[in-house]
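Work Package 4 report. The design task specified in the project plan requires that, given a folded chain encoded as C-alpha cells, an amino acid be chosen for each position. We show below one input record used in the internal validation round.
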C-alpha cells in the first residue's frame, strides 16, 4: 500500500503537505511543521463560491460499512494520485447522510488541486476512538477497490479527528 502521512490539527490547521498560499480567502502559512490558515476578510465565502463548480467535476461514491456507518469518496477527474483521508471531530449524534470528505471551506479547493477525498461517519457515536480507525481503513479499502492504490495517502483531521488520525497511524503504520 501507499505510505500514510499524518496531518493533525485543530480548526484550520493542517500539515505542510500544502505550500503557502491562499485557500478560499484564507492565508496559509508555515509555522514549524504545521501549516495554519487564517481568515483574512469576510469575503472568503465569496471566494469559495468561485470554485464551487469544481465539485461537479468530481466522481462521488458513498456506501455503508458493515457496522452501519456511512462513508464517502470524492475523486476529481484530474486526480494527482494523493488521497486525503479526513477524520471528523466529535459528535454525539449519528448522521445518516454521507459524511463530509473535508471541511466545507476547503472541500472544493482540495478537489481543484487534484486531491481525492475520503471519510467515514464512524460506526460509533461520541468518543469513537475504537471504531473510527477501523472505519477509516474500510474507506481506504473501498477507494483502492474502485480507483486503485493511491501514490500517497494523507490522514488528517481536526479536534477528535486529530486523535483518530494518530490512532489510525499507530494501528496501521503502513
Amino acid at each position: 500500500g501507499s505510505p500514510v502521512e499524518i496531518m493533525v490539527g485543530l480548526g484550520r490547521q493542517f500539515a505542510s503537505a500544502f505550500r503557502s498560499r491562499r485557500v478560499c480567502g484564507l492565508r496559509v502559512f508555515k509555522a514549524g511543521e504545521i501549516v495554519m490558515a487564517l481568515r483574512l476578510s469576510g469575503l472568503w465565502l465569496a471566494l469559495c463560491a468561485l470554485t464551487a463548480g469544481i465539485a461537479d467535476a468530481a466522481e462521488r461514491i458513498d456506501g455503508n460499512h458493515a457496522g452501519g456507518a456511512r462513508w464517502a469518496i470524492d475523486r476529481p477527474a484530474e486526480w494527482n494520485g494523493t488521497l486525503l483521508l479526513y477524520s471528523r471531530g466529535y459528535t454525539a449524534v449519528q448522521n445518516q447522510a454521507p459524511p463530509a470528505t473535508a471541511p466545507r471551506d476547503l472541500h472544493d479547493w482540495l478537489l481543484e488541486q487534484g486531491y481525492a477525498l475520503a471519510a467515514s461517519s464512524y460506526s460509533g457515536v461520541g468518543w469513537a476512538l475504537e471504531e473510527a480507525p477501523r472505519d477509516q481503513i474500510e474507506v481506504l479499502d473501498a477507494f483502492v477497490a474502485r480507483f486503485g492504490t493511491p501514490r500517497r495517502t494523507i490522514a488528517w483531521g481536526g479536534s477528535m479527528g486529530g486523535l483518530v488520525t494518530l490512532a489510525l497511524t499507530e494501528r496501521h503504520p503502513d
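The longest helix spans residues 132-147. Validation will be extended to a larger panel in the next phase.
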